[in-house]
Amino acid sequence: MNLYSTFYCSRAAAKELVRQGEGGVILNVSSGTALRSTPNSFGYAAAKAGVISLTKSVAGMLVGENIASTASSPVLWPNSRRGRTRRPSA
User: Fold this and answer.
1) Which of 4, 45, 49, 50 has the fewest C-beta atoms lying within 10 Å of its C-beta?
2) Residue (of 33, 57, 58) closest to 46 by Cα position
């Protein structure tokens, strides 16, 4: 579902942004797991790597329309005090 939903949403956003003719940005959400898989996450990692590849392809297709496509890849960092992972603070 991760990759399918990203594809269909990116396609819908691109059509609308092109129709409006003012440019814009399509932002997709991937994961740090796409580049560094963890045990038992190979399916999730593959889907998120696909999101990155799809985002790059969309960006290349829409460059002439003044539309950017980018992906955010949040990661979890180890927390040595608690022995678990947490999101880094801003």
Assistant:
1) 4
2) 33
In sequence order, the 6+-apart residues with CB closer than 8 A to the CB of 78 are 84, 85
Q: How do residues 3-29 score in pLDDT, each as one tens digit?
A: 899 999 999 999 999 999 999 999 998
> What CATH class does 2-86 carry?
alpha beta
pTM score: 0.76
Q: What is the pLDDT of residues 21-58, one digit of tens each?
A: 999 999 998 888 787 767 888 888 888 889 999 999 99
Dump the DSSP string for 37-70: --TT-HHHHHHHHHHHHHHHHHHHHHGGGTEEEE
Show which residues are catalytic: 44
Give the largest CA-CA distance in the chain.
52
